[in-house]
Design goal:
By secondary structure, this protein is mainly α. 75% of the residues lie in helices and 0% in strands. The protein has helices at residues 18-55, 61-78, 81-93, 100-131.
């Protein structure tokens, strides 16, 4: 307690080290630069899946376009898993030291996961007429 001002907030027992702040900034900047690359990589296959869905009359085109936009938003929300995983792995396994190969590996794994999810959507579109009973 501060005897001069009893209403002052108590001093923090832990002080954030400047090295931690700069490491966090480096992590965020590194991943945000990769977000542009990720969106560029996912754009063409995503448009391809949408084009196949529209061409095969899987759903009305406004529904397909809206679904494509929602999937893009979900993919960008899922992108946050990369920096979060790197943060935890660096803290737990590497005592906070940066590992460039870790970021690259997580980025590639995330891209592969996104391609697998897109592949499932494409398979669902391509198999849809087979699964419907004849009318």
């Amino acid at each position: 307690m501060n005897p001069a001002n009893p209403y002052a907030t108590p001093a923090s027992a832990t002080i954030i080290e400047p090295a931690s702040v700069s490491a966090m900034g480096e992590l965020v900047k590194g991943w945000e630069k990769r977000r542009l690359l990720y969106n560029g990589i996912m754009l063409l296959p995503g448009l391809g899946v949408l084009a196949v869905g529209i061409a095969r009359d899987f759903a009305p085109w406004p529904v397909m376009i809206t679904s494509g936009l929602m999937c893009g938003l979900a993919a960008n929300a899922g992108f946050f898993g990369g920096p979060l995983a790197e943060l935890y792995l660096r803290a737990i396994l590497f005592k906070g030291s940066p590992k460039p190969w870790l970021r690259t590996g997580l980025f590639i794994a995330g891209c592969l996961l996104s391609f697998i999810i897109m592949g499932f959507f494409l398979i669902g579109i391509l198999l849809e007429p087979v699964m419907l009973p004849p009318q």
